[in-house]
Design a protein that fits this description.
single chain, 148 residues, three-stranded antiparallel β-sheet, two-stranded antiparallel sheet
């Protein structure tokens, strides 16, 4: 019986060693499997990044190079300001309140012609800009300042 128990004990120890070896091998396989699972993700990320950088380089290369030719631009525009204000000077007798409030409805009825153009000329990295405004009002008055 004693020999048999010892034999059983050895088998038990042997089984324990095999079980430990199996557990160690299993954990190594799991770690290897985990490493292998990360490899496709990293590879995919690197490939996508390389492709995006390649496409960005192609787009930048496809952009037109600035030429040294002359470029002209003429742009018409319209501007309708509102004007509000007040004077801090003492008003001479016979003048209004000294407050000003004008909008497009006040001055468009007297406007006969207006021309507003923006001119741009470019050659290489040099530019010339001009802004031209012409106004023609049909009804105009001159302000009279008594005592001046």
């Amino acid at each position: 019986m004693g020999a048999r128990a010892a034999k059983n004990g050895r088998i038990t120890q042997k089984e324990e060693r095999e079980t430990k070896k199996n557990l160690i091998m299993k954990s190594r396989k799991e770690k290897t499997t985990m490493k292998i699972n990360w490899i496709p993700r990293i590879t995919t990320t690197v490939l996508v990044t390389v492709m995006l950088l390649t496409f960005a380089a192609i787009v930048n290369a496809a952009e037109k190079k600035p030429d040294d030719g002359w470029h002209f631009t003429i742009t018409p525009y319209i501007w309708l300001p509102n004007i509000k204000g007040s004077m801090k000077l003492n008003q001479p007798p016979g003048f209004g309140s000294g407050k000003l409030d004008l909008g497009p409805g006040d001055y468009l009825e007297n406007l006969d012609f207006v021309g507003m153009l923006d001119f741009q000329v470019k050659k290489g990295k040099w530019s010339i800009l001009a802004d031209v405004i012409y106004l023609d009002f049909s009804d105009s008055e001159t302000a009279q300042f008594p005592g001046v």
